[in-house]
Amino acid sequence: KQEVTQIPAALSVPEGENLVLNCSFTDSAIYNLQWFRQDPGKGLTSLLLIQSSQREQTSGRLNASLDKSSGRSTLYIAASQPGDSATYLCAVRLLLTGGGNKLTFGTGTQLKVEL
Amino acid sequence: DGGITQSPKYLFRKEGQNVTLSCEQNLNHDAMYWYRQDPGQGLRLIYYSQIVNDFQKGDIAEGYSVSREKKESFPLTVTSAQKNPTAFYLCATTAGRGNEQVFGPGTRLTVL
Questions:
Q1: Which residues of chain A have pLDDT under 70?
Q2: Which of B52, B53, B51, B75 is nearest to B64 (CA)?
Q3: Looking only at Cα atoms, what is the longest distance across chain A?
């Protein structure tokens, strides 16, 4: 059974700091991996999608890497801002017998960027 | 604008009542999903549907039911058989398995 772990569970940093969020998964046979942001009481916003054949994806100040063999992904946030404060979730997509697919989520890292 | 709408935003239910949560999308995506989110836990998959008139159970389907009569709509019914229904419910869609999953704004259900 696929398990996804995110460390740390919570993180507080001063504005301007570069930071790394970690995601690990137990089954390396993933189809892709997706990073999300969730603000309190809101739905999830997709940040980056990395296919299993890719090593990294970048969008603005965000960079996500994927190492399938070691079962790890990192989300790098450059020059953090107070507006980056949110919970960050990673999810891995597995293919199911019968053609379906599903995402398995980690429990998230709650980030607070302080002035 | 294309997107996913969920209604209502907040829902209160008395014990023993069935309630239905709405999820509508105009993204023309084939696959739709329902997740449940509890504090301190990751999202858990309730049901998913890859095409109209077809759906499969996820990891925690007991006490829930769905239908997929139209591509645009995937309503979730929380039945009285669901013993602990208070949670945040999220609907999502995907264009294809290689594409990103897109989420709606969620419905918060509280049992009184």
A1: 98-100
A2: B75
A3: 50
